[in-house]
Design a protein that fits this description.
Layout lengths: L15 E4 L2 E4 L2 E4 L3 E4 L6 E8 L5 E10 L7 E7 L6 E5 L7 E8 L6 E10 L2 E4 L3 E4 L6 E8 L6 E9 L7 E7 L7 E4 L5 E7 L7 E10 L2 E4 L3 E4 L10 E3 L2 E5 L7 E3 L46 H6 L3 E2 L3 H10 L1 E7 L2 E7 L5 E5 L3 E2 L3 E2 L4 E9 L6 E7 L4 E7 L9 E2 L4
Antiparallel strand pairs: 1-4, 2-3, 5-6, 6-9, 7-8, 7-10, 10-11, 10-12, 13-14, 14-17, 15-16, 15-18, 18-19, 18-20, 21-22, 22-23, 23-33, 24-33, 25-26, 26-27, 28-29, 30-31, 31-32
């Protein structure tokens, strides 16, 4: 018996083949029995193909799978990066047959940049990778994001944006457009150039108003805009404390005398709270305020510290404002009638833009009265006509001035710090 064999290649994986041996001799063609074998399953094959639709910030990556290795393709896609380490991965859907093409569109790429990529395909028996190809993006428009506004007050806000890509060319301008409607962003403010986060403070806003805004960035390819966002100014605009004395906050309004005004009334913990009521020269509140229960009959031109409600309750460094300081506040500030958290009062905006809110706290006689009015004691005696009266700041929705009245009445006290000039 003589044995012979032949090696065959190029077979399909996971495929049944039929075969039989034959010999040719003088008697003719003699064939053996037909037998079968099944080739083993294997990993797929994949070809990386040239990219298409290349722009300044995106491209379509293409590939083909000539053979699935006799087993279903479970995943396929591309690795890509600006270097050949292929740090990014983009997957594709594939339900085709051998020689099927698949593609993935990638975005958010940097302009004028070379990217390397290769395809991959996987089945139950292994993963195949194609050769590394490359493409270069063109110069595209920048990518810019609009972020949440910060530092929002009744008259100002800080707009925030971020240029995350320059599109392959220098960002020569960036900034914001804004307005009171999304269809009319007529105000334009610039904020430098280049990539990265940027901000712009805007002023002159109106109280209790919704503003619309979006960031923009410009390079040689054009100007692009981020999403439109909104913020709403509050119905009031008082400043955070500039500093503290004895634990109580004060605001520097930029007044000529350098006087600092407290953020809250004596006896209150917030700018909208009324606080306590005091007769002029008394340092404790009472349930009623009448001429009969008023303590003092002497006539100090200015209250001494032991009879000053601010000093007695908040300690050294605090005192009630004088007649002159009341007038300075009224005459040097922009004074507006407004409402904060449902509380009516006057907003005093100083020359430096800082502000305080004085609620219309009313006043006490035999009972609380004067809804819609504010009364605030000074430390100064009114002596022109009657030493039984003292100066106080008076306001309502229509007027604001310094006047005088009976010292026995219970009124609010807004303290001041000693001048630090």
């Amino acid at each position: 018996m003589r044995v012979f064999f032949a090696k065959v290649t190029g077979l399909l994986s996971n495929t049944t083949y039929y075969y039989k041996a034959y010999i040719r001799c003088s008697e003719g063609l003699i064939e053996g029995e037909t037998l079968t074998f099944t080739s083993q399953a294997a990993g797929p094959s994949v070809e990386t193909r040239p990219a298409s639709d290349v722009t300044g910030n995106g491209a379509t990556l293409n590939a083909a799978i000539p053979s699935n290795g006799g087993s279903e393709i479970t995943s396929c896609g591309f690795y890509y990066s600006t270097s050949d380490n292929m740090s990014n991965k983009a997957t594709a859907q594939f339900a085709g047959t051998p020689d099927s093409i698949f593609s993935v569109s990638v975005s958010g790429l940097s302009g004028n940049t070379t990217y390397y990529y290769k395809a991959f395909a996987k089945n139950a028996f292994g993963t195949a990778e194609g050769e590394i190809l490359w493409f270069t993006t063109g110069i595209g428009a920048p990518i810019v994001q609009t972020s949440e506004a910060t530092n929002i007050t009744g008259s100002s806000a800080t707009l925030v944006g971020n240029v995350t890509s320059d599109g392959g060319a220098t960002v020569t301008a960036r900034g914001f457009v804004y307005g009171t409607s999304a269809s009319n962003l007529s105000q334009n403010v610039q904020s430098g150039s280049g990539t990265g986060s940027f901000t712009k403070a805007i002023t002159g806003l109106s109280l209790e108003t919704t503003y619309y805004y979006k960031a923009y960035a410009t390079n040689v390819a054009g100007t692009v805009y981020g999403d439109v966002m909104t913020f709403t100014t509050p119905a009031y605009d008082y400043s955070d404390p500039t500093g503290y004395t004895n634990g109580y906050g004060y605001v520097d309004l930029g007044l000529p005398s350098g006087t600092r005004w407290a953020t809250c009334n004596v006896g209150a913990s917030t700018p909208t709270a009324y606080g306590n009521y005091y007769a002029w020269g008394e340092t404790s509140p009472k349930s009623t305020y009448t001429e009969d229960n008023y303590t003092y009959s002497d006539n100090p031109t200015t209250l001494p510290s032991n009879r000053d409600a601010a000093t007695a309750n908040w300690g050294s460094g605090w005192r009630m404002p004088t007649y002159a300081e009341m007038n300075e506040l009224k005459n040097n500030c922009t004074v507006t009638w407004t409402t904060q958290n449902g509380v009516n009062g006057r907003l005093f905006i100083g020359p430096n833009g800082n502000s305080i809110f004085l609620p219309a706290a009313r006043r006490y006689g035999s009972s609380l009265y004067g809804a819609g009015y504010g009364y605030y004691w000074s430390s100064s005696l009114f002596s022109s006509l009657s030493t039984y009266r003292a100066w106080y700041l008076y306001f309502n929705s229509g007027s604001c001035y310094v006047s005088y009245d009976g010292r026995y009445l219970g009124q609010s006290v807004r303290a001041v710090c000693q001048s630090q000039n």
